[in-house]
Amino acid sequence: MRLRVAGISVIGSGMVDWGQAQRILRGAESWDADALTVPTPTILSANERRRVSKLVRLALGAAEAACDSAGLARGAMDCVFTSALGDGAVTQAVMSALRQPGRAVSPTHFHNSVHNAMAGYWSIGSQNHQASTSLAGGQGSFGAALLKAALSLSQSGRPVLLVAADHPFQPPLSGTRPTDGAFAVGAVLTPDVEGAAGPLLDIEGGVNGPASETDTKALHGLWQTCPAARAIPLLEALLNPKTVVLEAGTGYFLSATVSP
Amino acid sequence: MTFLPPITAYTCVCAVGRGRDALRAALTGMVGGLTRFDDPVGVLDTFVGRVDGLDAVELPANLTDYDCRNNRLAELTLRQDGFEDRVRAVRDRYGAARIGVVLGTSTSGIASGEDAFLAWSGEGPLQSDFVFEHSQDLYSLSDFVRRRLALGGPSYTISAACASSTKTFIDGAQLIAAGLCDAVVVGGVDTLCETSLRGFNALQLLSPVPCRPNDADRQGISIGEAGGFALLERDEGGSGTALRMIGYGESSDAHHMSSPHPEGLGARLAMTEALEMSGLRGGQIDYVNMHGTGSHLNDRVEDRAIADVLGPAVKCSSTKGWMGHTLGAAGAVEAAIVLTALEAQIAPGNLNLKRPDPEARCRPLMETVPAELRHAMTNNFGFGGNNCCLVFSRDDAR
């Protein structure tokens, strides 16, 4: 499947935007694991802004920045969102409420607990009525979402907004698995038609693993523990065109070849 | 040209029983499976569609790490109607790497996480037998089924609230159309959990009586649990099936996180797109399985959308009175109902409907009736304004 990367964005631990991420990936700037600026989504009403978690804010920030960088209308794209971990903060709030007498759950926490909360808030804020999928595929979540985006695009001919985001758990949920570091990546992918801008991306399924690791030594821990950061090898390929291997669900691998 | 996959196997387990025969008997006999919920803290006054016998289900010895209520229901469902045998035969034919798994769930094995939180002392770590990755993690379901069936194609879980498993049929068709898979296991599993029960109660959506979708006196939803699987294949592969998916539509309301768009904008968009892709006019749809949750707003909005897009005379019903709203599994169960209806040439009734809403324009079927069905549609609309509509067809009918 052949497509073009018309826009890209990154927000996460030690990376305020794609510009800073590029400097870190090129070795021009050191990475500060503890710096995290979670954006405030400008597309939501004040009421909704108060209700959304850090994970949703990261995802919406990445979505907005990717659309801006592609220069495409936010409402016109099909959407694919992924988070391997889901919203630990909201889940933990609901489960903590169950420990109270009467087990009363907050209605807002409940409707924010659906995995497609990121996608739902994005559709509301961007007035996007298009198809929208939210998925999870373990460490292979980003690869699965890229695969789904490529499938949608190649069959509908419409551009796709792809967003992957993960945010660390807090105790006690954080004791159940390592979740260090926050990372969100947004990409606007378009069919490779005349006039389409951005690097070419060729995706082939069923190749041999393992998945490519990041070339950026400082980011290896993030790549390992934050599933959305499995996108980093592809981001590196956007800077230095090459082929990388991504896992799309456990044990299935895609090759993603970037050419300028 | 969009690929239209044959459906070579399907099954489901829900409150009315295990497998297709139990489902068909319940539909024709108008016998539902909702029972009163016994709330351990005495707060909830509601009915649920519980699947009996899950406590006794054992996962294969090499997969006991995945043990949780949701994966037990997945295991039980795989054993029905020869489903796993058909997958095994297809795996031998095409190779494991050519078969994908895309399943839907809203809460996966979250009940295990809830138990861990309820048992937690309030300090230190959660109990050590809670393994997030193999239970609460949304991918746990698809990963379990992938390993259980020894498949090696792409695998992921779609979690888009109540449209989760509906959407998996689209991904299955797309994976085959793109040449990445020769067959895909689709469907989904959702099980009763505190989060869903207490959450819907917080939204004041739980009915104190067994749910009565489309009834003038409806009082809300009944939550159920279910598993449903279907096998989509590149070709009918000697199965003799005449069933296939011929169209789909997806949309976003872009209105509110937990209320439908007041004019059903997203529902209309999804149904219209599915019709267009099917190459059908509204009048050619012989039956619609409504999302029909039993909530006031959903049923009213859906009624109007169906009446406008397909015409108010279309045969339609909500079947949630049988097994409740099975959330992320609703799409899989209702696909099984529609496929059963196409095979048995019946149009399912709307269980628990006694007094049709006088404001409704459509007239849902009070009873299950024999009917000539060639094309049938199913709707699911989820939180986050996520809408999905599928059209199934029987090639050899009429």
Largest sheet of chain A: 8 strands, mixed
- Main-sheet strand order of chain B equals 2-1-9-7-5-6
Q: Which chain pair shows the most residues in contact? A: A-B, 70 and 71 residues
List the domain count of chain A as a whole number.
1
Strand content of chain B: 15-25%
Shape of chain A: globular
User: pLDDT under 50 segments of chain A (min length 5)?
Assistant: none
Rounded to an integer, what's the Rg of chain A over CA atoms? 18 Å
CATH topology of the largest domain in chain B: Peroxisomal Thiolase, Chain A, domain 1
Order of helices and strands of chain A: EHHHEHHHEHEEEHHEE
CATH architecture of chain A: 3-Layer(aba) Sandwich
Distance between the termini of chain A: 16 Å
Mean pLDDT of chain B: 96
CATH class of the largest domain in chain B equals: Alpha Beta
CATH topology annotation of chain A: Peroxisomal Thiolase, Chain A, domain 1
Structural class of chain B: alpha/beta
DSSP strand content of chain A = 15-25%
What's the total number of strands of chain A?
8
Taking all Cα atoms into account, the compactness measure Rg of chain B is: 20 Å
The helix/strand series of chain B, from N terminus to C terminus, equals EEHEEHHEHHEHEHEEEHEHEHHEEEE
